[in-house]
Write a structure and sequence with these properties.
With about 190 residues, the protein is α/β, with parallel strands linked by helices. The protein has a single domain, classed as Rossmann fold (3-Layer(aba) Sandwich). The longest helix has 16 residues.
Length: about 190
């Protein structure tokens, strides 16, 4: 299976999980309990997270908890040349939907990457070492190449696979919070 086929396989698995709303919610609750209890979360004053599409992990729950705890919340916008920039949002922020179906903030409160404590990195498939296959644009790998802060991903067990070749430009996340490994986190 090439990366394109793996992406399609992962999307199919995530959509299948999304059809089982109770199970998906149970898994999200378990993963979020681990994440919110983590040192990464507790130490972060600013958290960057993408607004998920309906079949992905529901990141609105992360945003809601960050607002409750007084953390700065950042959401990315895609830029030309497959680049990302993160903008501060609040509960009143309005969004626009991109051609990729992702919501981006109508915010001008840009925050440079050296002021972002933690990025919750999205993806479709993840290896136990933190490498990921995303939607194929390379946006996050480019952004993370010189990012010095903390990274993690919130991953359903259905997304964990170790059967692909890592490419030289792939940047692993530092920690994966999941519902399947003992202790709930891998690559510590």
């Amino acid at each position: 299976m090439d990366k394109k086929e793996r992406r399609q396989f992962a999307i199919q698995k995530l959509k299948e999980l999304a059809r089982h709303e109770k199970l998906k919610n149970k898994k999200e609750k378990q993963i979020l309990a681990l994440f919110f209890a983590s040192k990464q979360w507790k130490e972060a004053q600013s958290v960057a997270v993408v607004k998920a599409v309906d079949f992905e992990f529901d990141t609105s729950k992360v945003m809601r908890q960050a607002f409750l705890e007084g953390k700065k919340v950042l959401v990315p916008k895609s830029l030309p040349e497959r680049r990302l920039a993160f903008y501060e949002v609040d509960t009143q922020t309005e969004y626009t939907t991109t051609k990729f179906g992702v919501e981006e903030p109508l915010s001008n409160l840009f925050l440079p990457k050296d002021e972002i404590d933690l990025i919750v990195v999205p993806g479709l498939l993840f290896s136990s070492r933190g490498f990921r296959i995303g939607f194929g644009g390379g946006f996050y790998d480019r952004y993370l190449a010189d990012y010095q802060g903390k990274t993690c991903s919130l991953v359903f067990s259905e997304q964990l696979y170790d059967d692909w070749e890592v490419e030289e430009f792939d940047i692993p996340v530092q920690k994966i919070y999941t519902d399947s490994y003992k202790g709930g986190a891998v690559n510590e």
